[in-house]
Amino acid sequence: MDQADTYITFVRQNQDILRDKVNEEMYIENLFDQWYTSSMKVICVWLTDRLDLQLHLYQLKTLIKIVKKSYRDFRLQGVLEGTLNCKEYETTHTRLTVEEATASVSEGGGLQGITMKDSDEEGEDVK
Q1: What is the dihedral of CA 9, 14, 16, 17, to 10 degrees?
Q2: What does the alpha-carbon distance between residue 66 and residue 104 come to, in Å, rounded to a whole number?
């Protein structure tokens, strides 16, 4: 999970830097919208290229964490629901949910609490 944590920390630090340095709110909102949309598109394309392959457990856990925390962090930065729930996000969410179900059956609970399902307990590590 170090890979996912490193990525999430990187994104959060850069969001904070942009908020501190750029004073034009409309520009920041547009930038965060584009950043989120581009991130989801990259993940979606990567998953689409691998439609016929099941994800490795490590890939699945890392992607679930990145997608969920990105969604939450960009929502906190003011990205609107319409942008957050874009086609790429919905496609990614569906694929990861199916992969999670497959992994839980075949791995016998190897996800160690990492899940696409929303829960209130996950809010404790939002910075």
Answers
A1: 140
A2: 19
Backbone phi and psi for residue 48, each to the nearest 5 degrees, phi listed first = -65, -40
Burial class (CB within 10 angstroms; exposed 0-12, middle 13-18, buried 19+) of 53: exposed
79's CB contacts (< 8 A; 6+ apart) are 29, 32, 33, 36
Instruction: Show pLDDT as tens, one digit a residue, over the chain (127 residues).
Output: 688 999 999 999 999 999 999 888 899 999 999 999 999 999 999 999 999 999 999 999 999 999 999 999 999 999 999 999 999 999 999 999 999 988 888 766 556 667 777 643 444 444 3
Residue 43, classified by CB atoms within 10 Å of its CB into exposed (0-12), middle (13-18) or buried (19+), is: buried
In this prediction the pTM is 0.82
The one-letter code for the residue type at 33 is D
